[in-house]
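Narrative of accomplishments. A recurring question from our advisory board has been how the design workflow behaves on a single, concrete structure rather than in aggregate. To address it, we present the structure tokens for one chain from the evaluation set, followed by the sequence designed for it. No filtering or post-editing was applied between the two.
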């Protein structure tokens, strides 16, 4: 039983794990709404696709988003929230929207506490054609990339990263994120593309970053990885079969960009990259521990557009749970358990099902109780 809500200005969280909203009546299509003394009748938020928008062609959606990004640059002065605010606010927020919303725009107003300031442009994935993967992996000319740093540029370094979105005709986009590491790179490593990136990360030893990574345990038992199976879905009515998408992607930079003086300088240098510039050579691992194989390139197709309020505050990139991939390839989960699941995924336990709200309520400060099984 869910109420499909489109405006969530009055939404709250249960134990900071999942969002819920008040409802006008206790009577819902699927039964009686939940009730509490403090909130009255309420229901869990469900973010369904906006069909009028999703029915458009991929190129039309790409043009709409880029136009909105470029129209909101004038007069916008972006800034990163303080470190103290990041920890205090993010720990008390829900991360479920990042996994559950099906949209290219945030479904309600929300402050972005990490990767707060970035630059956006159009990209293509140019496939080698010499691999078994389907869907977007066969090639796409209607992609968007948002480059950002996970934390504010300064003496403690910075964290180059990217979020990628591939628009599709008549249905929601396919999304994933990639970066070098949670720790980022040092202040002296001034090339934004200094290291190779991946959609799988290694666990950090930094206590604060460990805390933030555990926050994402509310949405997935493998918060250090994002899934790729949705990219391989060839059509709305035909789902990708096991074996048609890779376990992991590795991005080898083909370009450099200077971040010598400040983050604003860093973004301005990124914006100087010319359309047609090859950004990354893309390698895939078919399974845990397998050898990497070249499957194509990511190429910039427009100038990047930094300092956009829409690009920073409204543009949304969904995080696919790794559990989706494990359900199609359960042997991958077995392989990770054999390799050291905690080192690979960041948690000491696993499941092919996402965490329940009750289990998410134990994160990030409490462990699972002894009578919980996953």
């Amino acid at each position: 039983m869910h109420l499909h809500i489109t405006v969530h200005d009055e939404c709250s969280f249960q134990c900071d794990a999942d969002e819920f909203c008040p409802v006008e009546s206790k009577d819902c299509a699927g039964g009686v709404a939940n009730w509490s003394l403090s909130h009255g009748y309420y229901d869990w938020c469900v973010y369904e696709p906006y069909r009028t928008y999703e029915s458009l062609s991929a190129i039309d959606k790409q043009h709409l988003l880029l136009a909105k990004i470029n129209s909101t640059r004038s007069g916008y002065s972006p800034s990163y929230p303080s470190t103290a605010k990041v920890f205090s606010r993010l720990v008390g927020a829900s991360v479920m929207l990042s996994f559950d919303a099906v949209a290219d725009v945030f479904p309600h107003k929300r402050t972005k506490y990490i990767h707060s300031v970035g630059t956006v442009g159009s990209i293509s994935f140019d496939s080698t054609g010499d691999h078994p993967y389907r869907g977007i992996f066969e090639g796409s000319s209607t992609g968007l990339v948002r480059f950002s740093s996970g934390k504010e540029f300064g003496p403690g370094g910075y964290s180059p990263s990217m979020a990628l979105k591939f628009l599709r005709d008549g249905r929601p986009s396919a999304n994933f994120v990639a970066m070098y590491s949670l720790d980022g790179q040092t202040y002296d490593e001034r090339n934004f593309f200094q290291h190779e990136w991946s959609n799988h990360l290694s666990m950090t030893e930094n206590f604060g970053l460990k805390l933030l990574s555990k926050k994402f345990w509310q949405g997935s038992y493998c918060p250090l990885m994002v899934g790729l199976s949705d990219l391989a879905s060839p059509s709305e009515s035909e789902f990708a079969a096991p074996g048609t998408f890779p376990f992991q992607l590795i991005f080898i930079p083909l370009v450099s960009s200077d971040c010598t003086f400040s983050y604003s300088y860093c973004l301005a240098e990124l914006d100087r990259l010319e359309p047609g510039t090859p950004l990354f050579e893309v390698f895939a691992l078919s399974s845990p521990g397998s050898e990497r194989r070249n499957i194509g390139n990511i190429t910039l197709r427009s100038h990047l557009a930094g300092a956009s309020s829409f690009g920073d505050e409204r543009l949304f990139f969904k995080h696919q749970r790794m559990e989706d991939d494990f359900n199609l390839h359960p042997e991958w989960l077995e392989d990770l358990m054999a390799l050291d699941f905690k080192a690979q995924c960041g948690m000491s336990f696993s499941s092919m099902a996402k965490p329940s709200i009750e289990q998410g309520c134990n994160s990030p400060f409490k462990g699972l109780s002894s009578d919980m099984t996953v």
